């Protein structure tokens, strides 16, 4: 009887282990959108009535939300960033789930035009904290791993850029996507791996269209003369 009970216990553990292993993990992605609440709402190139009208939208139409500027809401309209009066749109969020994939992947297609590591100093730094991927303006850029957007703005040498935080195998990472032509995510969004976050450009201190991509183990720490806490992305792609 003792041997039988032991056999039954081991069988239960094995079955339980198989059940746990076979369960598919999922990751959630939160996207913010706006719904138009009035007919004939004018779409402009900038956040005021002084900017050019490029179209109009009607009640019930929905668009990706890109942020706000004063009393104007920034939306994705016709493949470009445009503005509508915040009075006549309502922001909401949608959450979708997909099968989880672990690790990091290349954020864009194209050749590596500058690698990670020591640099000449010609462009103001003697250590290149990331890799550059050369591609035409407008080439899609994707989230290298599932994570949360912590920065989405135009600022400094990075120009249009996005930063995300990720937890992979219990370790926190921060990724940087710089010199973008356009951004399609906003701060606070949870993004699934492989989701489009923008397009390649040449904004900020960039010479020719390319994506400058960085990975940092932990929070973002930059140094123009050393690796700081950056790591070589090519060692992490799967």
From TrEMBL:
GO terms for molecular function: metalloendopeptidase activity. The keyword Acetylation does not apply. It comes from the Bacteria. Residues 29-93 form the SH3b domain. Residues 1-28 form the signal peptide. Pfam families: Peptidase_M23, SH3_3. Keywords: Signal. This is Peptidase M23. It comes from Exiguobacterium indicum.
């Amino acid at each position: 009887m003792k041997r039988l009970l032991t056999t039954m216990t081991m069988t239960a553990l094995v079955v339980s282990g198989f059940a746990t292993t076979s369960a598919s993990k999922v990751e959630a992605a939160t996207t913010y959108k706006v719904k138009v609440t009035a007919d004939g709402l004018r779409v402009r190139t900038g956040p005021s009535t002084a900017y050019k009208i490029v179209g109009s939208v009607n009640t019930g139409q929905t668009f990706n939300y890109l942020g706000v500027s004063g009393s104007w809401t920034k939306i994705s309209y016709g493949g470009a960033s445009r503005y509508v009066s915040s009075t006549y749109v309502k922001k909401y969020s949608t959450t979708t789930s997909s099968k989880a994939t672990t690790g990091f992947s290349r954020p864009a297609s194209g050749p590596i035009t500058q690698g990670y590591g020591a640099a000449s100093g010609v462009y103001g730094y003697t250590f290149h904290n990331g890799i550059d991927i050369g591609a035409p303006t407008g080439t899609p850029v994707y989230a290298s791993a599932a994570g949360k957007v912590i920065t989405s703005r135009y600022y400094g040498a990075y120009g249009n850029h996005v930063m995300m935080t990720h937890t992979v195998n219990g370790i926190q990472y921060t990724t940087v996507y710089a010199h973008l032509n356009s951004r399609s995510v906003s701060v606070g969004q949870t993004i699934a791996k492989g989701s489009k976050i923008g397009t390649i450009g040449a904004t900020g201190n960039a010479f020719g269209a390319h994506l400058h991509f960085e990975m940092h183990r932990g929070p973002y720490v930059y140094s123009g003369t050393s690796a700081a806490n950056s790591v070589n992305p090519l060692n992490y792609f799967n």
